[in-house]
Amino acid sequence: MTISLLLGQLLNGLQYGVLLFLLAAGLTLVFGIMSFVNLAHGSLYMLGAYAAAVVGGQTGSFVLSVSAAVITGLVVGAFLEWVAVSRLYRRDHLDHVLATFGLILFFNELVNIIWGPQPLYLALPHWLSGTFELLGFSYPLYRLVIIFVGLLVAMGSQWLIHRTRVGMLIRAGSVNPQMVGALGVNIRLLNAFLFALGAALAALAGAMSGPVLAIQSGMGEPVLITTLVVIVIGGIGSVRGALYASLLVGVIDTLGRTFLPFYIREFASRDIANAAGPALASMMVYLLMALVLIWRPQGLFPAIGGAR
Questions:
Q1: Do residues 51 and 203 touch, judged by C-beta distance below 8 A?
Q2: What is the pLDDT of residue 303?
Q3: From CA 215, how far away is CA 119, in angstroms rounded?
Q4: Displacement of CA 169 from its chain's centroid (Å)
Q5: pLDDT reported for residue 1
Q6: How far apart are CA 182 and CA 187, in angstroms?
Q7: Which residues of the chain have pLDDT under 50?
Q8: CATH architecture group of domain 3-295
């Protein structure tokens, strides 16, 4: 194991964790604060990736492709909230699950009909395709950009929730929506804003992952499961907890997938090690969640009295 390899994989883990946070931040607003179980959050991530790929392919501009993804997330999120989600707030969580699972099937089939089963790819512009050099260590510049964008979103989320009037209403509405509504606040409009914002963050995550991953139907479901694990570890409703848990899960998963096969090769063949290493790394994430729930059932950084 070399220092360069370890440092590179640590940065890869941070980059993966930041992408998870972009998803977890939006989902924790909807799930933790609004108490709405949105399984279609991964589909919004997928739609953002497709929107970025289409606009990027037509214009060649990466900035326009990311902007198109965010706008798509906002519009689709607001439309879904108006058409379906707003009618389910007072229903049981099982109804949330069934309705949003139906949306997963709908969106997966929709992108198959429009773009077909072949994956799309989002090309990087030349100014983001280089590497960053420091003391002989080189790292892809775009992955550093992902980390930077995720940290900006984290700071913006904290500012929105703790430093603005809208954030004050969000925190109050998550504790006692009836009282906030009685004071003249339009709770339905506030919920629509939160849902659309969460959808925009999911679409942003999809756009940022486009140059790294293949864009295809169903790409949102695997990452949604990991995102739910992140929210449970960090604490439901806590944006700060979502950030720390995302980084923790990203680093553990990446380091496990990279280094576990090397250690397993001491006891088994290369083929077995290459197959068992990534599987054990995934298991470590769920083992971490189980240990956290045993130690702190409310998560590492629970949202006490509203969003944090």
A1: yes
A2: 67
A3: 5
A4: 24
A5: 55
A6: 10
A7: none
A8: Orthogonal Bundle (1.10)
154-161: Cβ within 8 A, 24+ apart: 154/21, 154/25, 154/239, 154/243, 157/25, 157/239, 158/239, 158/240, 161/239, 161/307, 161/308
pLDDT value at position 308?
A: 55
Q: In which residue are the tokens 């890869």 written?
A: 12
Structure tokens at 288: 């971490």
SS3 sequence of 60-118: CCHHHHHHHHHHHHHHHHHHHHHHCHHHCCCCCHHHHHHHHHHHHHHHHHHHHHHHCCC
Amino acid letter for position 208? M
Alpha carbon of 52 to those of 68, 153, 217, 252: distances in Å?
A: 6, 19, 14, 29
Task: Please give the full DSSP string across 129-159, using - where no structure is assigned.
Answer: SSEEEETTEEEEHHHHHHHHHHHHHHHHHHH
Q: Enumerate the domain spans of the chain.
A: 3-295
- Please name the residues in contact with 229: beta carbons below 8 A apart, sequence gap of 6 or more: 249, 285, 286, 289
Question: Which residue, chain included where needed, has tokens 């944006």?
Answer: 239
